[in-house]
Amino acid sequence: MLENLGLTYALAGAAIATFVAGIGSATGLCIASKAADGVLSEKPERYGSLMLMVLLPSTQGIYGFVISIMVMVKLQIIGGNPLPVTAVQGLEILAACLPVGIASLASGIQQGKAGAAGIIMTAKKPEMAVKAGVLYAAMIEFYAILGFLTSLLLLLGIKVVAA
Amino acid sequence: MQGNINATRMELLRLRRRVSLAERGHKLLSDKRDEISRQLILISRQLGMLRKEVEQELVETSRRFVMARATMEPEHIRAAMDVPTKTFSLAINFASIMSVRVPRFTKDIAGEIISYGFANTSGELDIALRGLEKVFDRLLELAEKEKQAQLLADELQKTRRRVNVLEHVVIPELGEMIRFIYAKLAEAERDNISRLMKIADIIRA
Amino acid sequence: MPEIMEQPLFNFTTYPAIGEDDWRYIYATAEIRAIEDKLLGQPFFAELAGAKNIKDALDMLSGTDYAVSAGANGQETEQMLGRRRSEVRRLFERLIDNEKIVEFFQSPIDFANMRLAIRRLVLEKPLSDDYCDLGGVSVAQFEAAFSDEDYGGLPEHLQEGIEAGVLGYYKNKNVRDIDFAIDKVEADFLLDEAMGVGGVFLEELFRIQTDLTNIKTMFRMKYSNSQLRNMFFDDGYIEPSRLAQCLEAGYDTIVQNFLATPYQYVVEAGAAGLQKENSFIKLEAACDAHLNGFLKTTRYITAGTQPIIAYLLLKEQEIKMMRMVLACKKSQIEPEIILDRLAI
Fold first, then answer.
1. Nearest by CB: B83 against C125, C180, C217
2. Residue ranges of the domains in chain B?
3. Subunits adjacent to chain B (3 or more Cβ pairs under 8 Å)
4. If you measure CA to CA, which chain B residue comes closest to C332?
């Protein structure tokens, strides 16, 4: 039983990367799309310019998903024949997954809010949609990318060898 | 007319009495005319000023009403103004100026004109209502004065017509008649004298 | 740069805090922000005030929400304004799903209807059915309660108001006391309601409104040398005792009394208007402008009930100003006076 503990830790890491980042993206998307719906109910012609701002928070979920796929590839779990992992290695993988998860959670929600503010601003000044609305919200993306890169580099640095 | 006159001394005396009566009447009536026109000038001078003031105050009040009404929500205006609390009754008496019966208004106003609370109402409404209350007295005064002026003007016209009739018709006509009777009488006298002289000549001859 | 706002970004010395974002209202706020664009704004009204006559003014309205047929008479214009008002109220009730907030804005209309009904009742006038239908209680229900004199079906705060109003009248048989009594009940109820909602915005709004009402009341009592006392509501920031002192003081002293308070400019404008022009126009415009300024601070909220409430009040103010400008144009009142009263 205990010899599988490493694998459990590693899989938990993969799961956390997906669902925590997913929560961030989903919440952010929810906020941004509600704001967009509100504006569209009055100004349907703005659909195109609002699209990008609504979609911005969706990237965080993808980062989380990519990291979890990488974990799965590393552990060769997709083939149905996972590598044996020590408990320490498992914890290392779990730790490597945390940056993308937490950074995505926070940045996804905040990006959704910033996007909503941008959408509301766009309702009044459509010409500023890309300049301010998208770019400002996209800056938050930077920190999600940092989280993603950190996770990625950490993950690449961990050598999984049979115990 | 002259044909109908009895050219007698009695008639002459009667006519002379009538002339002096007519002259006395003429003097009295022209005095009355002067007095009425003096009063009328007095009233109309006040009237012009009063009218201008009242009109100005009414315009001012109505402008404030417009402002108050427009800046209060309809339900608050209705709550404040729909049920009047001020009661007003008017009685008319008559006074006499130069024996002309002119109306005098006495009013009886009860209740407070402002009947709403401070919240939700406009200060302009206060000023407008108080202004209306104030201008009402002056409005009555104006009505009273205008009616007086109108009645006096009628009376003035009547008196002036009477004076003119006396001056230009009655008195000259009477004078004419007196002169006519006088002439008739004088002629009768001369007639008589010449007849007497003729008779005396016949007797002497 | 077409225009630069001269106001400081956060005028925190003038206006209190307005509370936090509430992300449940993001949809509603976004919708409001999109509609907000259509508010007409100061320049439009200034131009409207300068129109040559009522016909030109009505022509200028043709592209806006306030379009009426050419040659509309006063009654048609009033009906149009009434429709706009009930539209904005319906929108508000649709977007705010908080009963208490909705009730906060409906109950003043119920109270106004009640004042009218009680007057008719005690002065034995017919209770017709021409009440305002924007309140929380339907006109039919309202009329039924009053004609049967059975108030059990009405909400509690209205029952309380009716009792206070009727008692107030029979104390001195003075119609004015009905309003005084009901106003107090209304103020207490609204404060409770505002505190019950949670969040500071509604409470701050109510306190500012109360302060402005108190300041107006103070000037009105002073102007007419009223002998009434204890007319101030004690739910505002300004203590009633301070206002009572102002009644005895000269205008200059009053202005000094309010130095360095948020109401400094309101009081200065009001005192100047009363002294120089004998009118409350400037005071009322300054009060409206102060409240509008507070409402406009909600632009710093991305999501929440605050922008929706602010929109309701700003739109109602716009309707009121529209009525004012059109009525003044109709009565040929000078544009300067219109601009003095204009507060958008």
1. C125
2. 2-194
3. C
4. B63
Least confident piece of the model among A40-44, A56-60, B155-159, C127-131: C127-131
| CA-based nearest residue to C167, from C181, C153, C146 | C181
Mean per-residue pLDDT, C38-46: 89
Predicted local confidence at residue A163, as pLDDT: 45
Structural domains in chain A, sorted by start: 2-157 (1.20.120.610)
**B and A adjacent (3 or more CB pairs under 8 angstroms):** no
What confidence score (pLDDT) does residue C147 get? 85
pTM of structure: 0.84
Tokens of A102: 């937490």
- b/e per residue A67-86 (b: at least 16 CB within 10 A): bbebbbebbebeeeebbebb
Query: CB of C36 within 8 Å of any CB in chain A?
Result: yes
Q: What mean pLDDT is reported for chain A?
A: 88
Taking the domain B2-194, which CATH number applies?
1.10.287.3240
Report pLDDT digits (tens) over A126-150: 888 777 778 888 889 999 999 999 9
Spell out the domain ranges in chain C: 23-96+199-341
Test mutation, B56, B75, B82, B129, chain C, max C CBs within 10 A: B75
Mutate to test the interface with C, among A33, A54, A120, A124 (most CBs of C within 10 A): A120
Check: CB of residue B50 under 8 Å from CB of residue B145.
yes
Is residue C1 pLDDT above 50, yes or no?
no
DSSP A53: H
Alpha-carbon distance values, C67 to A90, B74, C79, C137 (Å) = 71, 20, 12, 30
